[in-house]
Amino acid sequence: MEQSQGNSISKGWIALMVIALALGGIYYMDRSLLKDAKTSQSEKNNSRQKQEVTAQNMNEEATANQNQPVSGDSAVIETSKGTITVKLRPDAAPKTVQNFLGLVNKKFYDGLTFHRVEPGFVIQGGDPKGDGTGGSGVSIPLEIKCKDGTMTEGGVAPSSCEPLLKHADGAIAMARTNDPNSATSQFYITNGAQAFLDRNYAVFGYVTEGMDVVRTIQKGDIMKSVHMK
């Protein structure tokens, strides 16, 4: 009887130990599975966050690209005498077009006047002071692209350069002082071809509609608004 009872007790302890080990295994397995699940969820969250950041960057880049000029962009100048449409040429004068487009986007030109009008020569505007002495506060370098693809920047182009954009009738170009790198916001539109200005001033586009308006502009006429088409 005592031996039988001892065997029973031993068997009981063995059974308890087996159950404990099994429960412990389940416990650690559950912890491992829980850890794996948390890791998997964390990886999913990180992946989702990366996708969201990537999407946000793509949206920001797309928005930035929308503000950048491309060949064919046109500026519409609404004046008190009618509308002038100008096709910009960033392919030939990228910094000049970028400067002009930035001012247009800021509505810098809205309400300014054509302060200088020389019949048969040019109409000139874009001066916030209205007397030919003002500007935007930021100067840009003179840039003239030659037909052979070379770019002259920071000074007048050599006589060997045949400008890609010439001062034909209806050319729009940046006005400046004697300093080649002094252009800011003032621009002019030629009324008739002005070949003697070639290689000395940065042409950055041409009038495509409204040359009849250009020819009727008088000193003091207002640019009611300038916007991109």
> Any idea what the CATH superfamily of the largest domain is called?
Cyclophilin-like
Give the overall silhouette: globular
Structural class: alpha+beta
- Low-pLDDT stretches are 1-9, 25-34, 52-72
Count of beta strands = 10
- Give the N-to-C terminal Cα separation: 107 Å
Report the top-level CATH class of the largest domain: Mainly Beta
Strand content: 15-25%
Tell me the major beta sheet. 8 strands, antiparallel
What's the CATH topology label of the largest domain? Cyclophilin
The helix content, as a percent range, equals 25-40%
Q: Give the second-level CATH assignment, the architecture of the largest domain.
A: Beta Barrel
- Major sheet strand order: 3-4-8-7-9-2-1-10
Counting DSSP H or I runs of 4 or more residues, the number of helices is: 3
Oligomeric grouping of the chains: single chain
Radius of gyration: 37 Å
Mean pLDDT: 81
String of helices and strands: HEEHEEEEEEEHE
Number of domains: 2
Task: Please give a structural write-up.
With 229 residues, the chain is α+β, with helices and mostly antiparallel strands. The protein has two domains: 1-66; 74-228, Cyclophilin-like (Cyclophilin). The protein contains three helices and ten strands, in the order H-E-E-H-E-E-E-E-E-E-E-H-E. Strands 3-4-8-7-9-2-1-10 form an eight-stranded antiparallel sheet. The chain has a two-stranded antiparallel sheet with strand order 5-6. A hairpin with a 3-residue loop joins strand 3 and strand 4. It is globular and about 40 Å long.
